[in-house]
Amino acid sequence: MSAKARAGAVGLLGLALGFFSPASPARAVDFPPPAVASYQITCKLDADAKTVEGTEVLTWKNTTSRPAPTLRFHLYLNAFRNTLSTFWRESGGVGRDGHIPDSWGSVEIRRMTANDGADLLPALRYIAPDDGNADDRTVAEVILGKPVAPGETISIAIDFLSRLPRVAVRTGYKDDFFMVVQWFPKIGVLQESGWNCHQFHATSEFFSDFGRYDVSIDVPRRFKGKVGATGRRTDERETSGDRVLYRFQQDGVHDFAWTADPNYMVVEDTFREAGIGDVQLILLLQPEHRSQAERYIKAAKASLSGYGKVLGPYPYPTLTIVDPPWGGRAAGGMEYPTLITGGTSWSAPRAVHRPESVTIHEAGHQFFYGLLASNEFEEAWLDEGFNTYMTDRVLQAAYGPNHVELDVFGLHFPLGIDIHYPLDSNRRYFETADWDPLASYAWKFRNRKSYGALVYSKTALTLATLERMIGTPTMDHALRLYADRWRYRHPTTKDFIDAVRDATGKDWGWFFDRTIFSSGVVDYAVDEATCVPARPPRGLFEKDGQLVAGPPADKAHPKGWDSVVTVVRRGDVALPVDVLLRFDGGHVHRVSWDGEARWTRFRVSGGPRLIEALVDPDEKILLDTDRTNNGRRPEADPRAATRWSARAVFWVQNMIDFLTVSW
Amino acid sequence: MKRDGGPKALACFVRGMKLSLSKPYLALALWLMQLMMAAVLILPISNSLHAMLDRSPAADKMVANPDYGWWETVRRTHPDLLGNFPELATGLLSPEGIKWSELPNLRGIGAVAFSLALLATVLHAFALGGMLGTLREESSSLVTFGREGMRRMPAFLVFTFAAFGSAFAAYEWIYQRSGEEMSARAHALPTEPMALAVTGIRLLALVLALAVIKLLADSVRVVWVARPDLPPVSRFLFGIGGALGRPLRLFGILGVYALVTAGLYVVWLILDPSAGGEARFALVPLILSQQVFVFIRLLIKIGYYAGVSEALTRTPPPEYSYAAASAPPPRPDEPPLENA
Hints:
The complex is a heterodimer. By secondary structure, chain A is α+β, with helices and mostly antiparallel strands. Chain A is about 25% helix and about 35% strand. Chain A folds into 3 domains: about 1-30 and about 265-520, Neutral Protease, domain 2, CATH 1.10.390.10; about 30-220, Immunoglobulin-like (Sandwich); about 525-640, Immunoglobulin-like. Chain A is built from 13 helices and 35 strands. A 7-stranded mixed beta sheet of chain A has the order 6-9-2-1-15-18-17, with no helix packed on it. In chain A, helix 3 crosses helix 6 and helix 6 crosses helix 8. The longest helix of chain A is centred in the last third of the chain and has 23 residues, at about 450-470. Residues about 1-25 of chain A have low confidence and may be disordered. Chain B is mainly α. Chain B has one domain (about 10-315). Chain B has 13 helices and no strands. The chains are: A alpha+beta, B mainly alpha. At the A-B interface, strand 5, strand 25, strand 26, strand 35 and helix 13 of A face helix 2, helix 3, helix 4, helix 7 and helix 8 of B.
């Protein structure tokens, strides 16, 4: 880290820490939170058949005020069962790393019994609450013989067989690399309005209740010491049949993922920061990326530190970072409780923050998703978008600007072109700015591009804009308020808006209506900026009670310049904006405009010479889709364009030579 | 002297360079042609840049650095300008390559660039004819260049378009299709360096194929100019034979040419005159240094062609040489022949 970047990081984080250390939220929940859905799982990996056979005992509590006559389960792996699943239909067979191979996955429930011994399997049926797709098998409903009363806890024992697909979307295998996620029958979330248990969609992720996980994993001996999972490893012992049994336990989480690969290099480190956390970092690294171990570890520490200072400490004792192998990168860039997957390449240049940004982002999900367990199906921006906003802040503080990367036949090179956080790193938003309102269900965006650009980038730019409007300390106050109120629970957008209101003392509903809940775009522009020497008036003027030709003496020789500046709102969304007129001699005129009208005009007569006019001079409104029109000068200066034109001619001359060289 | 005797590759290239330097107007002519073609492509972009930048405060940032945000916005808000050229360039540098079937989708400068490539091919045929003809005449001028260029034009157009088509076919069959076929298999390999090695082998095969195409085409052109006394089919076959008979020497000349050109680029990158020009805003020195660089590149390019010509036609032994036999001395009672 450069000295400048380090100073920035210390400043930013110190500010946050100083501001929030005394926070004592009234509704905070201590660790571990009350368990709603807890699992005790024993499973066995068949590395040749690529299956996991297991038994789970689910202990579930009805926390609503109404009895529950049914239970609903996610059977995520059935998304890969065949091409008729909702996931396949929505994705068009395209995964996270290109086309999905014909390698099928499934989860079969072979036994399901209640704690009273009742066989529930005959009462199990597949449902499709989102799209009615009768061929989708990713949600199952079980009708109970006796409804679960409010406050009552039941236990269900389930035998299941999970077939893993060749990894194409988060879960599966590549040779001996296993990323076993979204793999067991998992209960949905019962709310006052009923079950919230959505199908597996091409763009949706998670929503579950907190609980305790106690998982035993039986793997072939060649995986010894090369297994990672959610939570703390509490046991490792060799068993008969040349196998090894692992046990992992964790309280206060809402999912469980594990991985195994005999090729893993295991790198361990510790993150220790007063008031933020004391965390064992376990990096499961591919040997070809051994030189990048330090990059992963440093990024994980920066993330835990940066997020922790704003949102409160990371409460778990471990964080496992998985580095997927070549060909298994579709498993990368994912978050699970206390376990994340990174992503890098063999030739990843140091000047490009690829492993760093992925690691910081996924580790950041431990807060936005892990602790603040919002509904990713319905309000994906609450975790992905908020997390992107925080990722950019941590990256900027810890590493400074990123750089453009050039891929040449699979090798990666940095170009000396800066990418600034958060504006440049989220430019994909502008491509799809008006495609969808951000407040849409994950699978109801026009396509993945729109989903990604809006959920991740628009949210990040919206929050960064809000931060610039209310100030970083106030923004951090709002975030901390939101985190403290909703840690280990299921917050919604309204809860964040309330936190902003309470932190600022003002209602910001109008801001979120125009950004989160709107598909409108923001674009302010300086349409006109002219400056001419002040001229005397012409015509007939009163002199001694008579009209005479020519101006009076005091107006005959005006001094200075007449300037006219017109600022227009080209976008359909209005936000308050500053306008700055810079004059010769260092004179500056700054005006705040509410931005509601389509245009506003500024006239300065007989003033100093106008140098330039800028709208949003401090770059507060990062949602502005076109910043190239945010400024104008009366005087033309052709030098920059000429230089680029000369450069372009030179490049084309060289290109012509290269192209004709072989014929 | 060996059967494949005559000067070594390096010596041929050095002689070629001497010839090239002795006729700088050839490089000048080529430079002018390239500059004019580049202007066709760049003028619309240049005008748009002036319209967008001249009165913009962003120009200050653009002088010092290529501002990522500014270019991204221009690409997005002016799709007619850059079109899908950036995507195509990215695809061209990818392990999978680009399909020629994407050509109809070209927009903006991408479409203009393709049209320009066709025009460049025609001009290339003309320039090669003029250059090779001029190189063979001791006393020559730009008039010779024009005359020889037009004189060889029909045949050279055929050779050049044949080589052009062969190069495209080589790209498609050797690089692009193999990339498409091997994409899934490359991801199934155990490590990324292995996948990179596979891409490297495919690239090497393509480069070799392109080199063979180039050397065959250049040999035919050289012999075509050197042996006007032979019928066309014989000249063509002698050209092919010349390439096949002296492969190492020709590859050597091509290798030296490639190395010298690469060295020139290394010097350019080290000196980095563009950066200096930006920092000091010295537009005239910047543009001059760019054009001098192009001119030197063209001198080396001409040196290569002269070197190939040397390798194939200079060696005097008639039984192995394709050089035209020198005319017998005029008899005393006969006036010397004059050029028609």
